[in-house]
Amino acid sequence: PIGLLDGRIIDLNEKIVEMEDRGYQFGDGVYEVTRVYNGKPFALKPHMDRLYRSLRELKIPAVYTFEELASFHERLIAESGYTDAAVYLQITRGVAPRAHAFPENMVPRLTMTIRPSKTNVELQTSGAKGAFVPDVRWLRCDIKSINLLGNLLAKQRGKETGAFEAVQIRDGIVTEGSSSNFFIVKDGVLWTHPVSNLILRGVTRTIIIDQLAPKLGLTVIEKGFDQAFALKAEETFVSGTNTEIMPLVRIDAATVGDGRPGPVTRKLIEAYNEFVIKECGA
Ligand code: PLP
After folding, report:
1. Domain range holding 63?
2. Mean pLDDT of the chain
3. Which atom of ligand 1 is nearest the CA belonging to 50?
4. What pLDDT is attached to residue 17?
5. Statement to judge: residues 185 and 269 lie in one domain
């Protein structure tokens, strides 16, 4: 497997992490995950826009232009030869003797990896299981920080009950999945948590709201709701770059709707697949 370090293609077996990299010691960094379909990066611009926002919020200087970041993606895709893949990009604040406050004159460090990735169409067709878990994360979930312990604990807790995804609850309100956004279909209307510091503004979420829902004539309500409301929904699903759109047909012991992916979710999946083909080709 290959990766990229500050613009240079490397073998992943090369030992490149420095012990005093702040990403390694503090989780002081940000990341993005972008899908590659048909050898082409999907929705790269919104992902990189969000990366720049995360960097700004953490006062990490943006060293690379969008064109440079795009060319790094292209190079990894070309060198790997993968047509369907996920590119992971992370930028840490850089290397310095350990101290909590940001040291001066830091040089951020960029690392990227590429791995084959394919959507689980079988699970998408049958529907997956979810599990409600407490949202124990910090109050800046809008920053795509590499500090993911809260998300990891949620996913692990879900996994231990056999769930595909954990659906997090904060102060009685459903926020989002551990690595996805959460939607419900109630009386034919899409509901999801509003953009705030409590969720990550998913690129897939934005595509659903701005592109797919209008195309399908669906109304979207961006408003918080509780667990009981979610369980009364006809349909529920999670969305994310790797997950795409995944129906949740059971959450904990409860069956959602008739226990199969519903018509709205199925139409959204179809529209999403068409959108990917329109951007990346078949
Ligand atoms: N919410 C969280 C906490 C995530 O980690 C992710 C993706 O990794 C998402 C939502 C979905 O974001 P996107 O659609 O941009 O992949």
Report:
1. 2-116
2. 97
3. 15
4. 82
5. yes
